[in-house]
Design a protein that fits this description.
By secondary structure, the protein is mainly alpha-helical. The chain has 7 helices and no strands. InterPro entries: TerB-like.
Length: 146
């Protein structure tokens, strides 16, 4: 495997760990969140990765502090807009998969907004863009439940 593919796989694996950690923010993984996580792992061809398998097994809860550390490691000091939006989309899909947002999840999204690379100066258009993405995902989740 060449270095570029290996780096991409590592990014996907990091992203998956963050999303699994976010599922634990409220202390329990809901059935809809579990389904989302397994679908995401399968779609990214990492369901059989030993680390990901361990996290998906739900044998050991992931601490909030660990999830926040993974988030900061993933985005680094100078996150790209692409990495940020991919993370936002994945996390929003998870958070809205059960049709409700827990307080811990809302705080996590707030923290994520602070890490937005475009947030050097708070831009109302960026906030509007973020809210539109979240609203779209929420509507999609509600429609799927109906």
């Amino acid at each position: 495997m060449n270095n570029k593919n290996n780096t991409h796989q590592q990014k996907i694996k990091q992203l998956m760990k963050i999303v699994i950690g976010a599922a634990w923010l409220d202390g329990v993984i809901q059935p809809s969140e579990r389904e989302y996580l397994h679908r995401m792992a399968g779609a990214n061809a990492i369901a059989n990765d030993p680390d990901i398998k361990l996290y998906l097994s739900e044998l050991k809860p992931i601490k909030t502090s660990e999830c926040y550390k993974w988030l900061e490691d993933y985005l680094g000091q100078n996150p790209t807009e692409e990495d940020y939006l991919e993370l936002l989309q994945s996390l929003s899909g998870l958070i809205y998969s059960d049709g409700e947002v827990q307080t811990q999840e809302a705080l996590f999204l707030d923290k994520l907004h602070l890490l937005d690379p475009a947030n050097k100066e708070i831009s109302q258009t960026k906030l509007d863009k973020l809210l539109k993405v979240i609203q779209k995902l929420y509507r999609k989740a509600v429609q799927e439940k109906a």
